Amino acid sequence: MHAVKSIGVLSCARMSAAVYGVLGLLLMPIFLLMALAGAFAGSRHNPLAGALGVVFALVMPVFYAGIGFVTGLLGSLIYNLIARWLGGIEIELQPHASLPIVTSATTG
């Protein structure tokens, strides 16, 4: 068994930002459709009715990425603090059959 004793804080924050940014991109078309539907649903046809929704949908991936960065940063900091007390998450690693096993040789 191996234990994850520490997580690279900035590495985790970058990955989290990327995942949340992609999630924002995937959800953007849904929010665009809702904004456009809302613009046409009103009884008065105001040309700016759906503009705020469209702007939000376009800014959403960047906003999500920012939130992902902050939550990844805070989550990994908290994990590192708690892992000091509890020892981290134990995982079992198995080498892949098609990959060579590399061992580090000590130089004398």
Structure description:
The protein has 108 residues and is mainly α. It has one domain. A two-stranded antiparallel ribbon has the order 1-2. It is elongated. The mean pLDDT is 85.
Low-confidence stretches: none
The radius of gyration computed from the alpha-carbon positions, rounded to a whole number of angstroms, is 23 Å
Secondary structure tally: strands: 2
Which structural class is indicated by helix and strand composition? mainly alpha
Globally, the shape reads elongated
H/E element string? EHHE
- Percent strand equals 5-15%
Sheet with most strands: 2 strands, antiparallel
Map the helices and strands.
Layout: E1 2-4, H1 9-41, H2 51-86, E2 89-91
Antiparallel strand pairs: 1-2
Helix pairs in contact: 1-2
What are the key terms here?
mainly alpha; elongated
